[in-house]
Write a structure and sequence with these properties.
235 residues, alpha/beta, 10% strand, 9 helices
Length: 235
């Protein structure tokens, strides 16, 4: 784990939850460094406590802090989904949150999540990178593969889905994260994975959304939305 990152597990945190969180953070950090040559680039801290308030990111004394609450929906929902599919998804969920910490470090996600420019990308990337990391590390438990699982989930939600561009902003979108993840899968198909980091960095530098997107992926954002919508109709 990076020297810039501190972790603290408060009294009352379940030992099994701590074990799964540490596993998820460690796996995700390894693959971020493997794919992007960096993970955490500024002083950051993860503090885990057994509380039911929402988990949140904040800044204290110049340090990024992620307060991870094990009784919140951020942690309980993966447990419920894991039970539904008969697999333990806690470590993968921790990896997802670790990607958000990386995104804040890179500047494409914001503390408090206010003013974020493209919600579908931030959540889709966190899901896609964490699934990919767990697949490549041999820790993904679903027998038919994670892409098939995501497609199955997205098809089940098809009736409520809007075109992807409708989700550049929004909250309470957890039920359609699989949709966003498939968008990332489609986006990086036949592209270098580092383009994801390039886009995040471009936004962090203050580039306008469409310019940051085209600079990173070599395609206009409008054309991507058009192509993805056509692809979605083939599910």
């Amino acid at each position: 784990m990076p020297n810039l990152l501190d972790m603290e597990f408060k009294s009352g945190v379940d030992e099994s939850d701590e074990e799964k969180m540490r596993e998820g953070f460690k796996i995700m950090d390894f693959y971020l460094d493997e794919w992007f040559s960096h993970s955490i680039t500024r002083k950051s801290s993860i503090i885990v406590e057994a509380a039911n308030d929402d988990s949140k990111f904040l800044e204290e004394n110049g340090k990024l802090v992620f307060l991870y609450r094990t009784l919140s929906s951020d942690w309980q929902l993966p447990k419920q989904i894991g039970a539904q599919y008969n697999m333990d998804m806690r470590s993968r969920a921790a990896a997802h949150e670790y990607v958000h910490l990386y995104q804040i470090n890179d500047g494409c996600a914001h503390l408090g999540r206010e003013g974020e420019k493209v919600k579908w990308f931030l959540e889709g990337e966190a899901e896609w990178l964490s699934y990919k990391a767990f697949d490549e590390s041999g820790n993904f438990p679903y027998y038919s593969g994670w892409k098939q699982l995501l497609l199955s989930q997205a098809v089940q939600s098809e009736a409520e889905l809007k075109p992807l561009q409708a989700y550049e902003e929004g909250t309470n979108l957890e039920s359609i994260y699989s949709y966003f993840t498939l968008a990332i899968e489609f986006l990086v198909k036949n592209k270098d994975i580092r383009a994801l980091d390039d886009f995040c960095t471009n936004l962090g530098k203050g580039q306008e959304l469409s310019i940051a997107f085209q600079n990173a992926f070599g395609i206009t954002l409008d054309k991507f939305y058009e192509d993805f919508e056509a692809y979605r109709k083939t599910w």
